[in-house]
From TrEMBL:
Any Pfam family matching the protein: LGT
Record protein name field: Phosphatidylglycerol:prolipoprotein diacylglycerol transferase
GO molecular function: phosphatidylglycerol-prolipoprotein diacylglyceryl transferase activity
Record's signal peptide: none
Amino acid sequence: MRCFPTISDLFEYLFHIHIAIPIQTFGFFVAMAFILAYQAFRSELKRKEREGDIHAFKREVVVNQSSLLIELCLNGLLGFLLGFKILGALLNYEAFKVDPAKYIFSLQGSIIAGLLCALAYIYWIYKDRKKVSSQNNTVTAETVHPYQLMGKIVFYAGFWGFIGAKLFDMIDYLYQHGFTSLHDLVFSSGVTYYGGFLFGMLAYFYVGLRNNMKLPFIADMGAPGIMLAYAIGRIGCQLSGDGDWGIVNTHIKPNWLRWLPDWMWAFNFPHNIINQDTRIPDCYGSYCYQLSRGVYPTSFYETVICMLLFIFLWMIRKRLTVPATMSYIYLILSGTERYFIENIRINPRYHLGSISLSQAQIISIGMVLVGIGGIVYLYLIKPKRYTLT
């Protein structure tokens, strides 16, 4: 077993055929995480609308030739920027990984991807608006179903998720290195999952609340999709060897796990994408490094665990009749999983007296406490209150 910095490497390993595919493995699985989570969110929005928990709404749209042209131009520009930067980052993940913030604020990107996304956005808006009369100052009322808000949700959650991921990484950077310079703080290369998760979810809640959805239903609908996205994203971490691995595994594999491949117990991530540690003998090319000692492949563990948790959440979602139950269960499961996996991951530690915890563990404890408190409130405190009244 080895790492696969690009999809070409993975394809060649599986099928023994080399096809030049200029897509980074990590970027590919991040894109897959977004796509599959999008489908899960969309499916839940449709189901909740059928069950009457959320509703379609009417909005007035004033259309004339000038406003249509402006709308097409603005959406074309938005599509270009998204394609230029986001798809450009996926196509050139190595440069993005080295310094994400510098890449985002530079002129680097994919012009072809930007133009394709711009055309797609323009066509999408034109197709939607061509149903409306071409006469000037036409006022029309259109029905908007909740699942049609997914485009806005993805944009808001993606934008604010990146901001949050960067801010939380800056907190870690300050704790480890102190304030060295504004440039080092802003342009450090890391991002933090929980920062992206918290800010992305707040943006998702904002869009839902602005469109008259109730918070418990918004939270419940998002839980399975978030778990799925995390599981898929971790596949990219594992296959590319992006540094999200565990501590050195000094333990000998027990006899009852003899059937387990050695790399699942301790893995040295040969050909990792960040060129970490020791050069591989007789290897030539861009990715010729491996770890000198085997570490816990924590990304693999999280993929398996979180995929099972997603299946569990998906199976029980229709059986939960009390709003907010799903979201509280998600908080407990996700927080518990991350807390324990952090014990064998390499992450900065915050020292609280004699207790040493990572940022993710501190947040995980909060998630579990909120989840347990929410379940207690829904099933023990709230029913009694209603009984008394």
